């Protein structure tokens, strides 16, 4: 038997969304009215932990920094996929084990490739 949800049951959700939008809009408008409108030179200067700026803020980072960051994200996602698998390990059976072995093998091949290309060298 199929249950049909009445439109009246959505009213609290709509009220919640409306209050959230109203509060967000109200705080933005109130902040625009209350904040000072005459910034001075020191206020417009870049702030660097209380120290004067000693070089241009647009420094070029080496490409290795981004490669290592991407590798970190990839292996972080791998761990995020392994936790649910470990929790449901008993119910997945042999097929689940084989699928996880294939998943890990693909990631190990990628890690090995990155290692051989020197992507993990920091110097």
Give your account of this protein's structure:
This protein has 123 residues and is an all-alpha fold. The longest helix has 29 residues, at 89-117. It contains four helices and no strands. It has helices spanning 11-34, 41-44, 63-87, 89-117. The chain has a domain at 63-117. Helix 3 runs antiparallel to helix 4 (89-117). The radius of gyration is 27 Å and the shape is flat. Helix content is 67%, strand content 0%.
Strand coverage percent: under 5%
Q: Give the CA-based shape.
A: flat
Major β-sheet, in short? none
| Tally of DSSP helical segments | 4
Question: What is the first-to-last residue Cα distance?
Answer: 66 Å
Low-confidence stretches: none
Q: Mean pLDDT, rounded to whole units? A: 83
Q: How many whole angstroms does the radius of gyration measure? A: 27 Å
* Structural class computed from helices and strand pairing: mainly alpha
How many extended strands?
0
The helix fraction, in percent, is 55-70%
Order of helical and strand elements: HHHH
Structure in a nutshell:
By secondary structure, the chain is mainly alpha-helical. Helices cover 67% and strands 0% of the residues.
Features:
123 residues, mainly alpha, 4 helices, 67% helix, flat
Strands, helices and their partners?
Blueprint: H1 11-34, H2 41-44, H3 63-87, H4 89-117
